[in-house]
Amino acid sequence: MLKRCLVLVVIVGITAAVFHHLRSREEPWRPLERSEIDQPGQLDDLHFELRDLDPETWVRTYLPDLASPGFNLGLYKRRIPIIFDINGRIVHSWPEVRAAGRVRLSREGRLAVIGTDNLIKEYDWDGNLMWYFQLPNEGHFPHHDLIRLRNDNILILAQDDTTNTDYLWEIDSQRNVVWEWWINDHNQEFSAWDYESDHPSHCNSIRELPQNRYFDAGDTRFRPGNILVSARNLNTIFVIDKTTGDVVWQYSKGLDHQHEAVMVERGRRGDGLVIVFNNGLENLNAYRKSLVQTIDPLENEVAWEYGSEFFFSAVGGTAQPLPEENILITSSNSGRAFEIAPDGLIVWEWVPSFNPMRLERLPFDYCPQLTALTHSGISARARRVERPFVDTGLYRFDFPFNTEARVVKGKKLRLVLSNRECRQLLIPPEASVKVNYGIDGENLGDRSMRARFTMTIVDDGTPSVIVDKSLDSRKGKLQMRRTVPLVAYAYQHVEMCVSTEINSETENMAELAFWANPIINSKSQHPQRPRAGNRITKQERELRDQQLKALSYIN
Fold it and tell me: What's the whole-number mean pLDDT along residues 327-333?
């Protein structure tokens, strides 16, 4: 008996030691006191801009008889939550709230956000902090999405920094984790899972399934309350059974780094169809082409899709089903949000002075506070710009994640990856291109080199040289900047090429001659785009960069 007791004591001791060791490896954050949250001294001054805006000029098109009524919930400069009416006028804001990526408004007028400090927070209508939640491990962080469930709990999407994979946590009002799901526990269920990838999943949206005709007909996979997830790096959308945790449905056919999967709720046309923003990052839809697709989850086929030669967002984006089959689309990485009718006609278009983030249309009576605003001077002023807007992704020479960051003469530049690069572009109206090229003299040392820099543009098979300049490290300037007009190429598909010919007296030094990523701007598409200021706090910048690096958006 004594021997058994000694063995039991040893086992208990070893177990306790192992548990203590594991806990020491993953030490929780120190819980924050409420007084440490949202201190005025930590706030940037971005909210002062709200007073001087003329946001009604951002609405390019509004067809009152065809557009869905309501208010729009969004983020000013991707950080300050705002609500604006269909004419663009800001009717409410939370000027001292800073959000990253997603905001959600409840039926009671409470605002849930992913904070720029990586906290989940909830504010009342007047901006008072009512509740917050901090993930217990320092390397974990919430990202992309959060939703309020029908049971009033909050479901958050977060990333585990040890595996760089995603998980879901359901949090109740007392900050208890009442349900969790880890995608790494289900990796064998996804045929596209890349075990060598640094970020195999990269989920970007979560939705609670609504009442729908498929469940009404007995298909329990689509039980209301199950969770619909979009996993960008898996090119897959899937449904999690909330009770068992099983992946009960998934769809991948033709998806290319998609975002924002949403099921149409019962009572609307298209009941049960799944709408998804199919980005086309790897050009699977065609070269630089995004699609909004509705998918029949029983047939596993696309039932309908929208695309346009002017529509492309390499990353980001949302598609919200509206009444009468209209869809509100946010082309997040390309400068606009727009609403389309079933025939593809643009019936509302909003182009702010910044890239918009996940716009959401809310009914006039969505919450008591919005109901009170409904009759406060809202008017239906029809307008329409005949010339189409060209999404900026269609004339961006290279995207930031495809460039190399380098410091040249004390300034950080985004450089194209080789000494000859060509891109197919759609040029917007009243455009010009800013070019920056040269020799990296600081790393050249006492060596010498000559380089010829050429930019050409090909339209209808006819090449035109728009830059042709030779630089010699022993003579004159080593870096050139200039702006070249492209007005003659408005709405034309062209091929733009940059190239460098190197002539050096020593070893190959091609890496010391550079082209910065050419920047094309359009005066008519963004006439009031203000010059960016340093309006971001150090803490916010560090946490933002942590998220972007972890999610493979920047190097």
Answer: 96
